[in-house]
Amino acid sequence: MDHVPGDTSPDPAPSGVLPDVAPRLRALRRRRGLTLEAAAQRAALSPAHLSRLETGNRQPSLPMLLALSRTYGTTVSELLGEAPPERDPVVRADRSEPVEADGWIYRQAGGAGRALQCLRVHVPYATRADIVRVHPGEEWIHVLEGRVRLALGEAVHVLDPGDGAHFDSLTPHRIGAATPGGAELLFVHTLLQSPVAELCLGDGALHRG
After folding, report:
1. For residues 176 and 157, what is the distance between their CA atoms, to the nearest angstrom?
2. Exposed, middle or buried, 3 (CB in 10 Å: 0-12/13-18/19+)?
3. Which residues of the chain have pLDDT under 70?
4. Given Cys at both, which of 38, 53, 93, 149 links 178, Cβ 3.0 to 4.6 Å?
5. Backbone phi, then psi, for 24, in 5-degree steps?
């Protein structure tokens, strides 16, 4: 049952950056046999928030897309309806359209249907999506431009262009730009299905360098 008790006030429809995501999110959840409440719990969202995403009344940020892709055992490219040739090992730059979500801008840098998801990401200087994240798997980042602040557990690292980091995603982590113009990085993470899926800690306050 997809009705969310207490969530009766309609939200104004946003200017759609990702217009096809809402029905695809709903279809993927139902295909996995998950209720709205179960899927929301696995993605560390409230049922009301997931309901808004599925009806198009909210646009998901890139971290939300990553969390939902892990929850449903798929990729961000599938959530966005992108279908590069799965068996083609070459990903051409002119076939990768930039996608913006909550200030994050990214391009697919790898093929669909793989165990690794590869993205080129522009990280804004400050965003409400800069929350602490914990999930199964591994992540690798490599800074191309700007500076990146990477919080791993209690440690905070500032990465310059050419620096990289490879870490266990079960370590609480937060990635944000440390320069006002934002930062460009390559981002690779493993795509794993897990009952615990994605845990988000903290209140999502703005994270500034």
Report:
1. 11
2. exposed
3. 1-19, 82-88, 95, 102, 112-114, 126-130, 191-209
4. 149
5. -70, -40
User: Who contacts 206 (Cβ-Cβ below 8 Å, separation ≥6)?
Assistant: 126, 127, 128, 130
Selection from 195, 196, 193, 148 nearest residue 174 by Cα: 148
Q: What is the C-alpha end-to-end distance of the chain, expressed in Å?
A: 43
| Residues 206, 89: Cα–Cα separation, whole Å | 38
List CB contacts of 49: < 8 A, sequence separation 6 or more: 40, 58
Strands 132-134 and 164-168: unpaired
> Is 167:187 a contact under the CB 8 Å cutoff?
no
Contact 65, 81 (CB under 8 A): no
Tell me the CA distances in angstroms from 189 to 37, 69, 117, 208, one per residue in order: 26, 11, 5, 24
Q: What is the rounded distance in angstroms from the CA atom of residue 162 to the CA atom of residue 133? A: 24
Largest CA distance in the chain: 49
3-state secondary structure of 64: helix
